[in-house]
Amino acid sequence: MTLATGKVGIICCNGEDFAEGTISRVATRLVLEKLRPDQTVTLCLPLFLAGGEDERAFARVFPTIAVDGCSKKCAEAGTKKFSGKPVATILVSEVMKKYPHLKVKSREKLEPQEMELAMKVAEEIAKKVDEILCKKAKK
Amino acid sequence: MENHKVIVVPCSGIGKSLGTVGRVTTYKVVERMRPEKTRTVCLALLTMGDADALRLVRENPCISVDGCPAQCSKKNIEASMGKLAHNVVVTDFLRKNRSLKPEGVIELNDQGDKLAEIIAKALSEKVDEILHEAKCE
Question: What residues of chain B have any CB closer than 8 angstroms to a CB in chain A?
Answer without folding.
Answer: 9-15, 19, 23-24, 26-28, 31, 39-45, 47-48, 50, 70, 72-73, 75-76, 79, 105-107
